[in-house]
Design a protein that fits this description.
Layout lengths: L4 H10 L9 E5 L2 E3 L5 H10 L11 E4 L9 H17 L3 E3 L6 H7 L8 E4 L13 E4 L2 H10 L1 E5 L2 E8 L8 H12 L7 E6 L1 H4 L3 H9 L8 E3 L4 H10 L16 E7 L6 E3 L7 E3 L9 E5 H4 L2 H11 L9 E5 L3 H9 L2 H8 L2 E2 L20 E4 L15 E4 L2 H10 L7
Parallel strand pairs: 2-3, 2-5, 3-4, 5-6, 8-9, 8-11, 9-10, 14-15, 14-17, 15-16, 17-18
Antiparallel strand pairs: 1-7, 12-13
Helix pairs in contact: 2-5, 6-8, 11-13, 11-14
Catalytic activity: (2R,3S)-3-isopropylmalate = (2S)-2-isopropylmalate
Family: Belongs to the aconitase/IPM isomerase family. LeuC type 2 subfamily.
Pathway: Amino-acid biosynthesis; L-leucine biosynthesis; L-leucine from 3-methyl-2-oxobutanoate: step 2/4
Length: about 425
């Protein structure tokens, strides 16, 4: 019977010939990730269930990224808990401060390949489906069971496949595409479904751009985000990993597949307005002064984003009364930006450049906003209180819109 990528990957992981949407399966996990914020609860739960040894220390990845360096006694204690666990369990893939955001460094460091099942104690783990893996976020207590047993139950999801066509206009990016899609289908438009991104527009995108799409699948309720592997995927994976992999593709006549056609040829820069990700408007329809611009996160903190922003900011200044925070998504991205002179452009423009981490994205670290303040962010969520005060407002945009807006002190599209 014809099957989707998700059905094929989960069948393999469950040791079955085939499964179909709606089935409950116990799937073996290829990679399990937790970080400094969600990790301590996983460790405590692991100990509460009486587990003493993780199933496979080589398959667990633990980066510090949410509150690094530690900004409070509580976060310092969280780091201590995780370092102790790493040492006791002989976790091979531990990345201390300055490595970068978890969803950026896992692909960079070769932990993600096509056909795997990847779980992370973080909702944006769906990012890794850009490389053809079934990757999804789970709770910290579920992660404790994964640590102990190496498997987890899943309900096999149906699939919404977004067939995206059309050539993007100048200054329109993958972020605009995904914001527009979420605006169309709503925050619950793909609840517990796999969100596949396909079509000529996606084929022309870089791996970084595809990661923007899959990263935000969760923002329309998706269980995972996926892009079928192609030559770009294989070239990326084989340049970074020596793991074996298997490529799966969706059969277009699969019964659980729903195809949604999206034409982006006339799309203009988009912005998600407070306080919901599906409250999406064209930038030209928004008239809003801003207090802060945040360029970074696991959505748009990659080198291509920094290049796009630097091109606009070069020789310009951040508007008086507006502050700009630039946080590269990983040490690799930071180093490239340094070598290319991008960081100097940001500093000369008046921006603050910080070390790789999540920054203000979670509302718990560097650069949070206060009551009444407005943030324009390249991250993925704009819920009330997401980046600090519940009396603040967060707008979401591409890196290019963020840079142009920083210069003007209000939300604008690049000329």
């Amino acid at each position: 019977m014809p099957k989707t990528m998700s059905e094929k990957i989960l069948a393999k992981a469950a040791g079955k010939d085939e499964v179909e949407a709606g089935d409950i399966v116990i799937a073996n996990i290829d990679v399990a990730m937790t970080h400094d914020l969600t990790g301590p609860l996983s460790v405590q739960s692991f100990e509460k269930i009486g587990a003493t040894k993780v199933w496979d220390p080589s398959k667990i990845v633990i980066p510090f990224d949410h509150q690094v360096p530690a900004d409070s006694i509580d976060s310092a204690n969280n780091h201590i808990i995780m370092r102790k666990f790493v040492k006791e369990q002989k976790i091979e893939n531990f990345y201390d401060v300055n490595a970068g955001v978890c969803h950026q460094i896992l692909p960079e460091l070769g932990h993600v390949v096509p056909g795997e099942v990847i779980v992370g104690a973080d909702s944006h783990t769906c990012t890794h489906g850009a490389l053809g893996a079934f990757s999804t976020g789970i709770g910290s207590t579920d992660m404790a069971m994964v640590f102990a047993e190496g498997n987890l139950w899943f309900k096999v999801p149906e699939t919404n496949r977004f067939e995206i066509t059309g050539e993007l206009k100048d200054n329109v990016y993958a972020k605009d595409v995904i914001l527009n899609i979420i605006g169309q289908v709503g925050v619950d438009g793909s609840t517990y479904k796999a969100c596949e991104f396909a079509g000529e527009t996606v084929s022309n995108m870089s791996i970084s751009d595809r990661m923007v799409l899959t990263n935000m699948a969760i923002e329309m309720g998706g269980k995972t985000g996926l892009v079928e592997p192609d030559k770009k995927t294989i070239d990326y994976v084989e340049s970074r990993s020596n793991k074996a992999y298997k490529v799966f593709k969706t059969d277009l006549d699969a019964p659980s597949l729903n195809i949604i056609d999206i034409d982006v040829s006339e799309l203009e820069p988009q912005v998600a307005c407070p306080h919901h990700v599906d409250n999406v408007k064209a930038v030209s329809e928004v008239d809003q002064e801003i207090d802060q611009v945040f360029l970074g996160s696991c959505t748009n903190g990659r080198i291509s984003d920094l290049r796009d922003a630097a091109k606009i900011l070069k020789g310009k200044k951040v508007a008086k009364g507006t502050r700009m925070l630039v946080i590269p998504a990983s040490k690799e991205v930071y180093s490239k930006a340094l070598d290319e002179g991008l960081l100097k452009i940001f500093v000369d423009a008046g921006a603050l450049v910080s070390a790789p981490c999540c920054g203000p994205c979670l509302g718990g670290h560097t650069g949070i906003i206060g009551p009444g303040e407005v943030s324009l962010s390249t991250s993925n969520r704009n819920f009330k209180g997401r980046q600090g005060s519940p009396d603040g407002k967060v707008y979401l945009s591409s890196a290019a819109v963020a840079a142009a807006s920083a210069i003007e002190g209000r939300i604008v599209a690049p000329e």
